[in-house]
Design a protein that fits this description.
The protein contains three helices and eight strands; from the N terminus they run βββββααββαβ. It is of the alpha+beta class.
Length: about 170
């Protein structure tokens, strides 16, 4: 009568998640016959998980980031204009003319909203500060509108699994 002794090990091979979302796991088993020959059976399962909606959300985030970038640049230029006037910069200087020329159309709706205080060569004009606040609110509303119109609150998981059985005798 031939008896077969069986040993089962519960070692896990390649456990963990790879950088691309792939999960590897395996369970090898070794069978030992009385005559000394061994056969090995290895099971390896590979699972890949991805989010099918991630690309659309990334595109929406880029649009929203672009809106914040443009309005941030405008706010920065308006802040420079405020400090140039406050510090009494020479209006005939090239840089001052450039900043005033670029920001003039964006500041036009706010000119004359408040009085202007003059101290020697310095001018305290608060209209650039009001414009910064208004344009920041407009940027925020646009970003929220893009999120509502184009936004995709769905999230999902797509899983693909494959199993490899190997038997060596």
């Amino acid at each position: 009568m031939d008896t077969v002794r069986s040993e089962t090990r519960t070692d896990v091979v390649n456990t963990g998640v790879a950088g691309d979302g792939t999960v590897y796991s395996g369970l090898p088993a070794v069978n030992v016959n009385p005559n000394g020959s061994a056969s090995t059976t290895a099971h390896q399962t590979e699972t890949y998980t991805s989010d099918p909606h991630a690309a659309r959300r990334e595109g929406i985030r880029r649009i929203q980031g672009g809106i914040y970038l443009l309005f941030g640049i405008l706010g920065g230029l308006l802040a420079i204009r405020f400090f140039l006037a406050l510090l009494g910069a020479n209006p005939a200087a090239g840089f001052t003319q450039f900043i005033y020329g670029v920001t003039k159309p964006f500041l036009a709706p706010f000119v004359g909203l408040f009085g202007t205080a003059r101290f020697g060569g310095s001018v305290l004009d608060v209209s650039p500060l009001v414009a910064i606040i208004v344009y920041a609110l407009i940027a925020w509303v646009l970003v929220k509108a893009v999120g509502l119109v184009m936004g995709d609150s769905r999230s999902g998981v797509r899983t693909t699994s494959s199993q490899i059985d190997t038997r060596v005798r």
